[in-house]
Amino acid sequence: MNRPNLLTEEEINFRIEDLHLWKREGNQIIRETVAANFAAAVGIINSIAIISEAMDHHPDIQLYGWNKLRITLSTHDKGGLTKLDFELAKKIDDLTY
């Protein structure tokens, strides 16, 4: 799959405005969330995995403290943020949990 180009600083700043639960750290955007319990946290990971596979764009996901998730998005093969990161972030935000 041909990956989209890196976004400009202006494009990143514009797109991040719509993602209130995400913060930018360098060349990635990050969201932290707390699930109701361990099983719910794993369920969230599985839901993200299904969306990610369909997009062929995969986040880094850390499960810690039995119910906390840290989701990190960046287009690894481009070395920064592309439109794919923001599209996946919106899909993750649309999950109900």
Question: In brief, what are we looking at here?
Answer:
Helix content is 38%, strand content 22%. By secondary structure, it is α+β, with helices and mostly antiparallel strands. Helix 2 runs antiparallel to helix 3.
Overview of the structural elements:
The protein has a single domain, classed as Gyrase A, domain 2 (2-Layer Sandwich). It has 3 helices and 4 strands. The protein is α+β, with helices and mostly antiparallel strands and 97 residues long. The chain has a 4-stranded antiparallel beta sheet, with helices on one face. Helix 2 (38-55) packs antiparallel against helix 3 (83-93). A hairpin with a 3-residue loop joins strand 3 (60-64) and strand 4.
- Please state the overall shape, judged from the principal axes of the Cα atoms: globular
Strand order within the widest sheet? Answer: 1-2-4-3
- Please describe the biggest sheet, giving its number of strands, its sense, and whether it closes into a barrel: 4 strands, antiparallel
Mean pLDDT level: 96
- Provide the low-confidence segments as ranges: none
The tally of domains stands at 1
| Highest CATH level, the class | Alpha Beta
Q: Indicate the proportion of strand residues.
A: 15-25%
Distance between the termini: 31 Å
The helix content is 25-40%
Q: Give the SSE string.
A: HEEHEEH
What is the secondary structure topology, with strand pairs?
Layout (H helix, E strand, L loop, with lengths): L8 H8 L6 E3 L2 E7 L3 H18 L4 E5 L3 E6 L9 H11 L4
Antiparallel strand pairs: 1-2, 2-4, 3-4
Helix pairs in contact: 2-3
